[in-house]
Structure formats: structure tokens, C-alpha cells
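@channel sequence for tomorrow's demo:
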Amino acid sequence: MRSNARRRDDVRAIPAPSEPSLALASDTEVAVAIVHAADGVRHLVAARSADELFGELADYVRRHAPKQLFPSGAKRVLGLLERGNADGAVRLYFALAGRRWDEERLTLRNVELR
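C-alpha cells (generated this afternoon):
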């Protein structure tokens, strides 16, 4: 019999943060990520590409997962980072954030520089 259960580290079912297409339309656009918490903005990143942005977010997640998440969730997030899946690790981190300590949410936007 076939099981429909997904692996625990399968992040395809995790909804993406509220994100536009992070494909930059022009040389004057940057991708911006804002990590929000109840007490205000915790982290702000601007980058010229989605890869660079998620690399910066991966660093944030790597630093905060061990103290923000339950140990099992932190292990899953850090495992994704070890396997080079920054996007998956970031999505999983923000899906789990708030279950142990403070809730955090991620907003992604493209911003036109003038």
C-alpha cells in the first residue's frame, strides 16, 4: 500500500511567505526581506538577487533557529541548510517560528530605487 505521507523535511507543502516574484525587473530594483516580530523589525536585508537575499536570510535562520525553535524543528532547519536548501530552510523556519517563543513573519518585496 502506498502512503501519501510526506517526509518531515519536505518543504513543498509549506506556503511561501508573502512574496512577489523576486526576479528583478531593472537595474534600479532591489529585493528586500523584512523579519517582523511583535516588538518591531528584527532583521532587514536588501540584495540585488534572490539568491543573495536567501543567502542572507539563511545566515539569520542559522543563527536564530537553535534558540527560537524547538530542538526538533531547529534540527530540520539546520539539516536543510547543510544540504544547501536555503529557500526550504527559510520557509520552514518561518512556518515553525512562534511555536516555541516569539512569533516572527517574513515579508519579501521588490523595491525600485530612484
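heads up for whoever presents: Residues 10 and 88 are 8 Å apart (CA to CA).
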